[in-house]
Design a protein that fits this description.
Blueprint (H helix, E strand, L loop, with lengths): L14 E6 L3 H17 L7 E6 L5 H10 L5 E9 L5 H20 L3 E8 L2 H7 E3 L2 E2 H18 L4
Helix pairs in contact: 1-5, 2-3
Catalytic activity: (2S)-2-hydroxy-3-oxobutyl phosphate + 5-amino-6-(D-ribitylamino)uracil = 6,7-dimethyl-8-(1-D-ribityl)lumazine + phosphate + 2 H2O + H(+)
Protein name: 6,7-dimethyl-8-ribityllumazine synthase
Organism: Posidoniimonas polymericola
Length: 156
């Protein structure tokens, strides 16, 4: 058996982060966690591009445009969709999830899903640096892992 293990992500890797303004008290903490993790792992500050969008629904459009540039080793998507009194959150979550998966597959590009899909504000708080960790930081770790794994894979 031959196990392919990730190598260190190349020094010239660039990453993008698309983050939603909606629920900014949560999404800012996710962004802070992702940026801190990249810095801790040696990714230069100027190798990380951040694009703010109005809400989670707009994340796939900007992610698609960024993926089209072929500049990035990975794109993190950060948002917080919190259930309200209607099923609106269900449709947002489904559309965003499907769109981001399609972009990643079409581009053979890691598109990391850091869009919280929570029942309550408290659940979101706990996932943005609270007792459950910081999902933005986890996305950055996953992006680095995937960049290294893709670099280790044969191209043909």
């Amino acid at each position: 058996m031959n196990v392919i293990t990730p190598v260190d992500a190349p020094d010239n890797c660039r990453f993008a982060i698309v983050v939603a303004e909606w629920n900014k008290s949560i999404t800012q903490k996710l962004l802070d966690g992702a940026v801190a993790t990249f810095a801790e792992r040696g990714v230069a500050e100027d190798a990380v591009d951040v694009a703010w969008v109005p809400g989670a629904w707009e994340i796939p459009v900007i992610t698609q445009r960024l993926a089209d540039t072929c500049r990035y080793a990975g794109i993190l998507t950060l948002g917080a969709v919190i259930k309200g009194d209607t099923v609106h959150d269900h449709w947002i979550n489904a559309g965003v999830t499907d769109g981001l998966m399609r972009i990643g597959i079409e581009h053979s590009l890691p598109v990391l899903f850091g869009v919280l899909t929570c029942e309550t504000l408290e659940q979101a708080i706990q996932r943005a640096g609270g007792s459950v960790g910081n999902k933005g930081s986890e996305c950055a770790e996953a992006a680095l892992h995937m960049a290294g794994l893709l670099a280790a894979l044969p191209t043909r």
